[in-house]
Amino acid sequence: MTHQYELMVILNPEIDERQVPATLDKFLKVITTDGGSIDNIDIWGRRRLAYEIQKKNEGVYAVVAFTATSAATQELDRQLGLSEQVMRTKVLRAEDAIAMIASEKQRADEKAARKAARPAKPVKQDA
Question: What the protein does (predicted)?
Fold first, then answer.
C-alpha cells in the first residue's frame, strides 16, 4: 500500500548547489526502484540554520513530495541517515501533516473565539 510523503532534507553547505539534484536523485532511486513515484522536488537553496548543526551555520534545504510504500520510505530514511552529506532529515506522511495543520487551525480558531467572547475589562476614568 502506498502513501504520500513529504521529505525535508538539509544538506551540507559545502555541496555546490548545482550538484543538489544529482545528490537527491541518488537517494530517491530507492523510491523509484520500489515502484513509488517522485511527485515534486523543491530545492530552497542555501539558508541560515536556526542553530548550529555539525559546527555549521548554513545548510542547503530541499523538500521532496513522493508516493511510496512504508518499507521504501524507511529505507530512504536509513540511507539518508548514513550519508555524511546529509545534516538533517524529516519524513512526514502527507495525510498526517495535513491533519496536523487542520487541528492547529481549529485550535487557534477556538482560542480566538474564546478571547472574543470574554468581557472587556472596564477602563478606569480619572476624576
Answer: Binds together with bS18 to 16S ribosomal RNA.
| Structural contact between residues 70 and 3, judged by C-beta atoms closer than 8 angstroms | yes
Give the chain's residues under pLDDT 70: 97-98, 120-123, 126-127
Say how far apart CA 62 and CA 112 lie, in whole Å.
Answer: 34
Say if pTM beats, i.e. exceeds, 0.90. no
Which whole-number Å values give the CA distances from 70 to 1, 42, 93, 105, in the listed order?
Answer: 8, 22, 10, 28
Cross-strand pairs, 42: 63
What cell does 86 get?
Answer: 546529509
3-state secondary structure of 93: strand
Amino acid letter for position 59: G
Length of the chain: 127
Domains of the chain: 2-116 (3.30.70.60)
What angle separates helix 20-33 from helix 70-82, to the nearest 10 degrees? 150
